[in-house]
Design a protein that fits this description.
Length: 305
């Protein structure tokens, strides 16, 4: 009969459990193989107990030096009770994670494996899973703090290709789009930060433009019915707008806005112009005094006002 760490109480005789509850367990250790070892104290005697528990919580092997003919002596049960208490203890205490969490089987394996083998395995994995390779790079690369327009375009394209290998693939699964968006949010965060550092400077604005053009170009290319990408564009512009609104100095504020105004003026019919007009219109409605007068003077929404 299989015995499980989480349900052994109902599978073992009550008397055995009561007998085990009287014992004290000490010096619990986990061997590199994952085997749990401890001493069960009974009177003056110590019994060396070991349990092999697999990832599903099943006890697959056990030993005890009491030489009992029973497959499951009360010393082993005492260790089971001890492990059960350890598992449920921190949960009952509160929502904080226990710092003494038992390592998972994978964590155990990683601590055993030589570094070289881990490296080789990751290399193989990255050949199959470009998305994981990118995630790995994002996690371990020093964070870039400056971006040109072309760099943002290249970075954004790299993300797409990490998820979909074919450059010309047009029909895309929703799951792929979600994945790309997820990676973009991470990859674009430092770009937005760079923009926020100085929205009145052209280099900083151009990085933001590169970001938006990348999203628009992708949206155009895949011909999907989702509005997730447009939502993302609007989200990015909202962040830019919030940042611009924080500029106290009027001429700095004007400088920051002029990049959007000029783009809208010189790119009739473009998708980005359309986005920019909505964005500027939003700002106009929230602006007062000279800021509102300035936006009106651009003539961009002459038909609306
Ligand atoms: Zn025993």
């Amino acid at each position: 009969m299989p015995l499980f760490l989480y349900s052994f109480r109902k599978d073992l005789p009550e008397a055995l459990i009561q007998k085990a509850e009287k014992l004290k367990v000490r010096d619990l250790d986990t061997l590199p193989s994952g085997t749990k070892v401890a001493f069960a104290e009974e009177g003056k005697n110590d019994f060396d107990v070991s349990l092999d528990i697999n990832a599903q919580g099943e006890i697959v092997a056990s030993s005890c030096d009491c030489q009992s003919p029973q497959p499951f002596c009360h010393h082993k049960v005492a260790l089971l009770l001890f492990l059960e208490k350890k598992k449920s203890g921190p949960k009952a205490g509160g929502k904080s994670k226990s710092p003494k969490r038992e390592p998972t089987p994978a964590e155990m394996k990683m601590s055993e494996l030589p570094e070289e083998e881990l490296r080789m395995w990751l290399q193989k994995l990255f050949k199959k899973r470009k998305d994981l390779e990118l995630e790995f790079l994002q996690a371990f690369s020093p964070v870039k703090t400056q971006f040109t327009y072309d760099e943002v375009r290249a970075l954004s394209e790299e993300v797409i290709q990490s998820v979909v290998k074919s450059k010309t693939k047009k029909k895309m699964e929703m799951s792929e789009i979600r994945k790309i968006l997820g990676f973009w949010k991470t990859a674009h965060a430092p770009v937005l930060e760079y923009y926020s550092e100085n929205p009145a400077a052209e280099d900083h604005y151009r990085a933001l433009e590169g970001l938006l053009i990348s999203v628009i170009a992708f949206d155009w290319r895949i011909r999907n019915n989702t509005n997730k990408l447009q939502q993302y564009e609007i989200e990015v512009l909202e962040k830019a707008g919030t940042r611009i609104s924080q500029i106290m100095d009027f001429s700095e504020w004007q400088k920051a806005l002029m990049y959007f105004v000029r783009y809208a003026e010189s790119n009739p019919g473009s998708v980005l112009r359309h986005l920019y007009l909505n964005f500027l219109w939003g700002l106009y409605n929230r602006a007062t005094g000279e800021r509102q007068r300035f936006l009106r003077s651009t003539g961009l929404f002459a038909r609306l006002i």
